[in-house]
Automatic annotation (TrEMBL):
GO terms for biological process: intracellular protein transmembrane transport; protein secretion; protein transport by the Sec complex. It is found in: Cell membrane. Residues 110-123 have a biased composition (Pro residues). Belongs to the SecG family. This is Protein-export membrane protein SecG. InterPro entries: SecG. It comes from the Bacteria.
Amino acid sequence: MNLQTWVAFFHSMKYTSKVMTNIIVIVHIIVCLALIFIVLLQTGKGAGIGAAFGGASQTFFGSSGATPFLAKLTAAAAILFMVTSLALTFIGHQGGASVMKGAGVQPAAPTAPAPTQPAPPGK
């Protein structure tokens, strides 16, 4: 399926239930938290010095460490995040009209300047 097919699918839906929107929002929040957690699990470039001072080595994930596994998990979470973001965008765009719809349709009528009263003498 290409992008045009997905766009046509989302635009052809006349009624999007609140339940589906809520499910996508919940999945989106879970994916956001998972993405944050996965990124925080990854070791930085300077993490090797931590093992020299008694830090734990990466034996839990094997000799190669968790880098390949966490990189794939990060990519999967990022793809799911983008899909849920696009779905929420299309669903949110369906129901409402633009805030600017109808703006500028009626030009403002020119108003006459208010008459000025002269200041009272002596003040």
